[in-house]
Amino acid sequence: MAEATAADGKMKDLSISQVKKNKKDGAPKTAAKKPQQQKKKIEGAALIGIDVAKEDDLAEWYQQVITKGQMISYYDVAGCYILEPASYAIWENIKAWFDAKIKTLKVRNAYFPIFISSDNLEREKEHLEGFAAEVAWVTKGGKSDLEKPVAVRPTSETAMYPHFARKIQSHRDLPLKLNQWNNVVRWEFKHPMPFIRSREFLWQEGHTAHLTQEQATEEVLQILDWYADVYQELLAVPVVKGTKTVNEKFPGADFTTTIEGFIPATGRGIQAATSHALGQHFSKMFNITVEDPNAKEAGKSEHIYVWQNSWGLTTRSIGVMILTHGDNRGLVIPPRVAEIQVVIIPAGVTAKTSAEAKEDLYKKVDAIKSDLESVGVRVETDLREGYSPGFKFNDWEMKGIPLRIEFGPKDAEKGQVTTSRRDIEDKVQARGETKIEDLKEAIPQLLEQIQKDMLAKATKAYDEHRVQLTDWEQFVPTLNGKNVILVPHCEGDKCEDEVKAKSARTALGDGVAEDKQAPAMGAKSLCIPFEQPEGIKEGETKCINPDCKNFAKKGLHHTLRACALNGHARACTLPELPGPDLDTKVLIRPGLATFRRPSTDSTQPTPQATQGIRTSSLCNLTSTPPRGPLSFAPSHLRDSLVTIDPPPYTQAASSRQMASFPPLPFTQATADPALGPEIEMIPNFCVQSFARYLPTGCHPCYDCYMKPEYEPARKKWMRIYADIHPGCKPEDVERMSGIEDIARNLGLLNVAQEVNTAESGKVEAVQDEAEMQKMG
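Above: the chain sequence. Below: its structure as C-alpha cells.
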C-alpha cells in the first residue's frame, strides 16, 4: 500500500540563544531582542499552554500541541514516536468503525510477519522502485551477518501474495479478502513529523483477490467511500474523492483512487487515504491463477489471472485532524473519536467550603457522570486537589476535550450545569446552561451538534480555498495564495511533468536557472476529482499548459509541492580557503558560515575567501543578513573562531543567491552600542526550547544553563533535543562543543554528513536536504 507523501514536515528549526560578551569582564549579558525579530507570543498565553500562534509558526505550534496535548511523546529513535493513550484511543475508534464496515464485505483479519525476504521484495521491479529508498534492511543476527538481508515491511503485497498463490487453487476460493491492522516501517530521509511522516506508523492494509475486474472495481470504490466517511463523519475533515494521475498512482497498480484533504494553515493538499485497483499485474508476477469457470462450461480448460486490490488508511489521519481543527489554545477533537467527550469540573470550592458541602457537591458530580455514562457518553471528572478551576479549564482545553461541564454550589441550587464548547473560539458564545434532568438527552445532542459544526467549519475553509482556473498566468499566483486549484488538463504524464517544471520556473522568477540539486518545487497534482465542475468540456477546453496543444479531458486538482516562500537548503559548498594554518571545520547555511582555526588568529578571511559559495535556497526573497561581524561559539571556543562580515560574504554570491538568504536565527545585541555589533552564540542549547522548562521562564545565558538548580530542566530538554537530532543521544548533548553543536542548533535537524576535522585543510560541507522544509 502506498501512503504517498504530501506533507513535508519540520518539527522545529531550533533557534540559538544570543548574548553579548562584555569585553572587559567577560560577563555574558542577555541579548536585547529587536521587537520585529521576537517570536510572536499569543496574548495572554498561560505558561503551561500553547505559547506560539498557529498562523505565525505552524511547525512549532504543532510540536507544542501534540506534546502538551499528550498525543505523543518522543522516543530515542529519530522519526519514531510514542502514541499516548489519547491519540491511540482515536485510532481505536477509527479502527472499530472501519473494521465493522469491511466485515460486511466478508473481509477477514489476519497477520503476516513484519519481515520480507529480499527475493520476494525484489521480485517486482516497478513496485520495489516505489519504496527502495525507504526500505529498512536487517543484515545481522547477533554478531553474524545474514546470508541474505531481510526487509522490514514497507507494505505487504510481496509478503502476502505468495500466500495467495498457495491459497487460491480454484475459482471457488474467490474472492479472498484479507486485512491487516499492523505497523510498517519506511525509513524516511526527509525530516519526520509525528502522524504526518514517521519512520514507523500504524495502518490497516486490505488485500483482496477477485474473479472479475468488475467485482474488484466495485470494491475499490466502496472502500474509498468508507475512507471518506472516516474523515468526514468521524474526524470532521472534508475530503475530495478522485483518481490519481499516471505519475502519482501506486507502483504496479492499474489505477489508484484517493481522498485528498486540505490544511488551511499551509494552503496545501494532503493525501488522506488510497484504494488501489492492482489489476492482474501482481497475480501475473506471483502466478495467482484459477481455471476459468466460463471456459470450463464450454468444454475448454483455460486458466486466468485473478484481479486484485489493495487499500490502506494510516495514523496520518490523526495528524490531518489536528492540523485542520487545532487552534491557539491547543487541540480540538471531534466528539465521535475523542477518548473523553465530556469533562466535569467542580467549581466554587474554596478554602471556606466545609468538608460536608464539598462531599455533597462531589456526590452530585458523580451522579451526573453516571447519568451521562448510561447513555453512552465518555466522561471524566477532574477532582484534582491543589489546582484552580481556571487551571483545569485551560488544561482540558489544550487537550481538546469537546465539551466541559462546570458544576458548583450555585449550579446545584439552580438544578443546572454550565457547559462550554471547545470548538467555539469565543468563550462567551461557547457557554450554555442545561437543566440536570435534561442532561441525558441534551448532552448527546450537543455533542452531535459539535461534530456537525466542526465539519461545516472545516468544509467552509476548504471551499474558500478551492479555485477553478483556466488561465495559466493565474496558476502560480493562485497557488501561492494558499489555494488548491482545479484546472483543465489533458491527463498526459509528460504534460503533467511540464506543468510542474513550468510552475517551478515561474515561482523562481524569469531568467533564473533552477539548481538541479535544489529540493523539488512546483505544482503537484492531487487527483482527478470524481465530481467535475461545470465549464470544462472534453474536446473544447484547452489544457492549462500553454505549451500543450491538446484539449483537456477533465479537471485536475493541484497544490504546491514546495512554495517559493518557504525556506530550503539542500547543499552549500566552499572551495579550499586560502590562509595560514587552515585546519578548518565549516558549517554552511545560506547566509551563515563559521570557520574554526587551531590558533587564535582572528584575521578575517578576505572577500575572495568566500567566493564560489553555491547555495540552493528557495526562501523569503526579501531577507538579507544583518550587517556586522558575526561570531558563533560558546565562550570557551571564542578565541579559536574567525568572524565573517556578512556584506562581503553575500556580495560574493550571485544577486539571486544574495536575495534568497533566509532570516538568520539570531538578533544583534544592542544593550551596549559602544561594544559594537559583535554577537556571541550559545550553541549548546536552544534557549527558547530550554527556557520552557525553567522554573522562572527566564531567557538564560550559557552560565544560567549550567547552574545546578537548572539541572532537571536541562536534562529534560536534552532528552527532547537528542530525540529530534538523528544520531544524538541525551548524554552526548552535555559534551557537545564546537562546530557539531553549532550545526545542530542552527536547525540542521537531519544532518546527512557529519562535519569532521579536515586533516588536509579541505572544507567539509554539512549537507542537509530538509533543513527548513515546511509541510508540503
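The two ends are 21 Å apart (CA to CA).
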